[in-house]
Amino acid sequence: MYYTDEGLDLDFRHDPFKAIVAPRPIGWISAVNARGEVNLSPYSFFNAISSRPNIVMFSSENKKDAVAFIEETGEFTCSLVTKALDQQMNLTSAPLPRGENEYVHAGLEMAPSRIVKPPRVAASPAALECKLLSIQQLKDIDGNDVPRWMVLGQVVAAYVGEAFVHDGRFDTAKANPIARCGYSDYAEVSELFSIVRPAGG
């Protein structure tokens, strides 16, 4: 079975791209605009792309409030989405009018950040405070602008709940994060296994 971006085989009711590139971490992005209005929204096109410095990326389909707010103020936070918070995360994806607070809509408590102005999700076991590096509108292979914006941010501080730290390591399985798969599907991390990388030459 094979398809191109020009059309799907009749056996596919939906493009399987998001199901193939899965699971994907969820960036639960909180941003504040110049007027102090708060936005909280989940992005499944999200990941870490660098260490030393730690840099994260998320991409927005259409220029939504999070991107516009970050463009205004240059800061954002990213809270870890866990299984215990899956319903609240979903509520924050609702298309609310600009200025309506998703924290309030989802029944979530805000916690102050240390360095940046946007708050983090208080109930999340970990969060990253980020300063904007760049916002780039994406283009297709023909050089045409597409309505997708990629945001890069450098992590300037991180919050980690003490209950999730054991032997100097963050206990990912205990935190029980969830990830986005295709369609309406999600995955959860509840156990880990280790593979030791080959020794260098």
UniProtKB/TrEMBL annotation:
Gene Ontology terms, MF aspect: oxidoreductase activity
Top EC category: oxidoreductase
Positions of the Flavin reductase like domain: 19-172
Gene3D superfamilies xrefs: Electron Transport, Fmn-binding Protein, Chain A
SUPFAM superfamilies assigned to the protein according to its UniProt record, in alphabetical order: FMN-binding split barrel
Name of one Pfam family that matches: Flavin_Reduct
Domain of life per record: Bacteria
UniProt-recorded name of the protein: Flavin reductase family protein
